[in-house]
Amino acid sequence: NLTSTTYGIMVVRDFDSSCTMSSPTINDDDLVVLLINATKCFSGISTRTDVSGSIVPEYGINGVISFTTPSVYVDPIVELQ
Predict the structure, then answer these.
(1) ∠ CA 55-38-36 to the nearest 5 degrees?
(2) How confident is the model at residue 36 (pLDDT cuts 50, 70, 90)?
(3) Contact 45/36 with Cβ under 8 angstroms?
(4) How much is the pTM?
(5) Which of 1, 8, 20, 55 is the most exposed place for a label (fewest CB within 10 A)?
(6) What is the pLDDT of residue 11?
């Protein structure tokens, strides 16, 4: 529910069904998309903001995220990476 103040995970591939709503475990060979409500999550993410972070799966290789938000939010969904 991305109308709340949290982020969400959309599961694309999860061979062992370990990434559930109650226990979102991301492990080796899983493929997920992170969804963020930019106006509500983290007290809002402004335009032209540098954002970085890391994803640490229970198993597998850590991922690094780094992007700058667009200069204007035109569409409700923005693909950043």
Answers:
(1) 35
(2) confident
(3) yes
(4) 0.65
(5) 1
(6) 92
CA distance 32 to 22: 16
Radius of gyration of the chain from its Cα atoms, rounded to whole angstroms: 14
3-state secondary structure of 71: coil
Q: Token pair 């709340």 is at which residue?
A: 4
**Angle, alpha carbons 12-15-16 (nearest 5°):** 125
Q: Say what the pLDDT of residue 14 is.
A: 94
First-to-final CA distance of the chain:
22
15 against 39, higher pLDDT: 15
Q: Residue 67 is encoded by which pair of tokens?
A: 């992007």
